[in-house]
Design goal:
The complex is a heterodimer of chains A (203) and B (436).
Chain A lengths: L1 H20 L23 H16 L3 H9 L4 E10 L6 H15 L3 E2 L3 H17 L16 E14 L2 E14 L5 E14 L3 E2 L1
Parallel strand pairs in A: 1-2, 1-3
Antiparallel strand pairs in A: 3-4, 4-5
Helix pairs in contact in A: 2-4
Chain B lengths: L1 H12 L7 H9 L3 H10 L1 H4 L4 H15 L2 H17 L3 E2 H9 L11 H17 L3 H21 L10 H13 L3 H21 L6 H13 L3 H9 L13 E11 L2 E5 L2 E5 L5 E5 L2 E5 L9 E5 L4 E5 L1 E5 H17 L4 H20 L3 H18 L11 E11 L2 E8 L6 E9 L4 E8 L2
Parallel strand pairs in B: 2-13
Antiparallel strand pairs in B: 2-10, 3-6, 4-5, 7-8, 7-11, 9-10, 11-12
Helix pairs in contact in B: 2-3, 3-5, 5-6, 6-8, 8-9, 9-10, 10-11, 11-12, 12-13, 15-16
The chains are: A alpha/beta (203), B alpha+beta (436).
Chain lengths: 203, 436
């Protein structure tokens, strides 16, 4: 009686080991790029897109645009500077900067100039044209549009954790600075809060 | 009974003692990291699924020693993800481990090992010049240490890491963020107060200079005076900014675990004392010589000497952390011995009930005790490719090219010679391995 009970336990345990040891199969499902999918709880494409959309909507609804237009009778020219990652996870800030640039250009309310690296490449091309392009098509030096405002900022996180429960609080701070006067014309922030839970046990 | 013993034996037998580590360590001591990496790769099956974290830790640090920072980062990321997944414990395996021992559980690393992952990741990024990402890793260290302190109800020793606080200060200062740098240096200095008491690691002298310099730059006169009176060098605000060379030396082989078998006595219902041996892991230090290094920096018109100091004694941290874990969690919960004892009592009483022969009863009970002793085995897995300690030295030098030579304490044996470019206001990291 007793030994058959022990035998059952051993069979059960071996079964469990075999069950958990088996491999998983890979599947692929296509989804729309706009779909929100949260896997790890880390900063993802959805966060980047939503924050960019909302913050640019905010910055463009403020009085500085109208004031600049009234004063200079032209649309302000904006450049996106650096957005520093001061969080506790590796956030790719480049896609976020690209989202900001896209929202700004598509708004049609401001003019927009290329950033530092892009300008460098364009300048090389212009230099190249001086020797190789025809007189009618060659582009002139010193005709670049200087930006009036620079958008810069950072991403920070505050994490509160107890056991398998984690609250992640992201704050994106952006500031628009007048390049001539160093005056800040707009400060915006956007917060995202996520709760990530991980179970302490499985069978 | 017999099946139980057979199963236990089977589970223990599948992990060898890892003889190949001898070859890995001998290659490391000769700076042949490629050969060490190949040796670990060749023995991937020894690690199995159970010790996959350990495999990635070994690979990560070997690539770090080799200066292949991208590969090191990807192995450490893999380790970190696996460790995170292992937060979810398998109940079935936990129960089984009580009956047998911890060797059947997946290895998730000691707490200090999990923290060191982020420290080496930070150094990988710093060497790649990715300062923001290096700082992300430093913040992850902070999060982890806070989580572990909570787990141990603040009774553990390793609640703060002075070395990573110092590195954080250096990173902030090279980014021109002096206020953040000052705060990190101050935190490092405070933590070295605990370090000197617990691990015998005093604050490096130059940390006081760093505190005076950043405090002066921020016009924090009171703080600047305070750290000057403790021995920090006066900083001249008008002096032109030099560049910094931070020399990081990995010295000695990290500790390994050995088994200790203290005995525990538990009385049964009839009052008879039963004595059991519990198998517990204990760290065995492998770096016993105390050695600092001489660092010589030579340019066309100058030649400067300095000496390294211990900034992080990994062996000491390992010993304390393991002891804290065993005392605060493992033994507190009664440990395996008690549970095994209870199971054995039940079996013995069943033997008594079924049998009539007294001698047979006695032999049966004895057999139960013996099996318990045989299955009891300490989990000796550990990240043994770590260095025993991390030493630091630093220079502030005018921009230019320098030849930096690191030799042993009497200056007789050269460990490494390298050319370093110093840029004003920037930090050049120079990592030296002397893991023998």
């Amino acid at each position: 009686m007793k030994s058959s009970f022990n035998f059952a336990v051993v069979v059960l345990i071996l079964g469990m080991v075999a069950f958990f040891g088996c491999s998983q199969q890979k599947t692929v499902t296509r989804v729309e790029p706009g779909t929100t999918i949260d896997l790890s709880g880390d900063w993802n494409d959805t966060d980047s897109r939503l924050v960019a959309e909302e913050m640019i909507k905010d910055v463009l609804s403020r009085p500085w645009v109208g004031e600049f237009k009234g004063e200079k009778s032209k649309a302000p020219t904006v450049i996106v500077g650096t957005v520093r990652n001061r969080s506790s996870e590796h956030i790719a800030t480049l896609p976020f900067i690209k989202n900001l640039e896209r929202e700004l250009i598509n708004s049609g309310r401001v003019d927009f100039v290329a950033n530092k690296e892009e300008r460098q490449e364009v300048r090389e091309e212009r230099q190249e044209q001086q020797d190789n392009a025809s007189d009618e098509t060659v582009k002139r030096f010193r005709q670049e549009t200087g930006a009036d405002f620079m958008l810069q900022g950072d991403i920070t996180t505050i994490i509160d954790q107890a056991g398998g429960e984690k609250v992640k609080y992201y704050q994106v701070n952006l500031e628009l600075v007048n390049i001539e006067s160093n005056k800040k014309v707009w400060i915006g922030e956007k917060k995202i809060k996520k709760v990530v839970s991980q179970s302490g046990s499985k069978f | 009974m017999f099946l139980y013993a057979a199963l236990s034996f089977l589970l223990i037998a599948c992990s060898g003692s890892g003889e190949f580590y001898k070859n890995v360590e001998s290659e490391i001591s000769k700076n042949n990291y490629r050969a060490a990496i190949d040796e670990v790769k060749k023995n991937r099956s020894w690690y199995g699924d159970k010790s996959s974290v350990l495999y990635n830790l070994d690979m990560g640090i070997l690539y770090h020693y080799a200066g292949e920072y991208d590969s090191s980062i990807s192995n450490f990321f893999a380790a970190e993800n696996q460790i995170e997944d292992l937060y979810t414990k398998s109940i079935s395996l936990q129960v089984l481990s009580f009956a047998v021992n911890d060797n059947i559980l997946p290895y998730e690393g000691e707490d200090f090992e999990k923290v060191l992952v982020n420290i080496f990741l930070a150094l990988n990024y710093a060497n790649k010049g990715m300062m923001d990402d290096a700082l992300v890793e430093a913040r992850k260290v902070d999060l982890k240490l806070r989580e572990y302190s909570r787990k141990y109800e603040e009774k553990n020793t390793y609640q703060e890491d002075a070395f990573i606080r110092y590195i954080t200060g250096v990173l902030y200062e090279s980014a021109g963020e002096i206020n953040d740098a000052f705060i990190s240096y101050r935190k490092a200095y405070e933590t070295y107060g605990i370090y000197s008491k617990e691990y015998g690691t005093k604050a490096p002298d130059f940390l006081l200079d760093d505190l005076v310099r950043t405090a002066t730059q921020l016009s924090f006169t009171e703080e600047a005076n305070q750290y000057q009176s403790l021995g920090g060098k006066v900083y001249d605000k008008s002096a032109k900014t030099d560049g910094r060379i931070l020399v990081i030396v990995y010295a000695g082989k990290g500790p390994i675990k050995k088994e200790e078998r203290p005995t525990v006595s538990i009385p049964d219902t009839s009052g008879t004392l039963h004595t059991f041996q519990v198998a517990l892991p204990k760290f065995l230090p492998r770096y016993n010589r105390f050695q600092t290094y001489k660092v010589l920096a030579v340019s066309n018109d100058d030649s400067l000497y300095t000496t390294t100091v211990t900034a992080e004694n990994i062996t000491a941290i390992a010993e304390k952390s393991l002891n804290d874990r065993l005392v605060l969690t493992y033994l507190k919960s009664g440990g395996r011995a008690l549970l095994k004892f209870l199971a054995a009592e039940k079996m013995k009483s069943e033997i008594k009930k079924s049998g009539k022969d007294k001698a047979k009863n006695f032999l049966g009970s004895l057999a139960v005790d013996l099996v318990i002793g045989a299955t009891e085995q300490a989990d000796l897995r550990t990240w043994r490719t770590l260095p025993s300690e991390i030493q630091l030295a630093q220079y502030f030098l005018p921009s230019g090219t320098y030849k930096v030579k690191v030799s042993d304490s009497n200056g007789l044996q050269t460990i490494k010679e390298e050319t370093v470019n110093v840029k004003s206001g920037r930090t050049s990291f120079l990592i030296i391995n002397d893991i023998r």
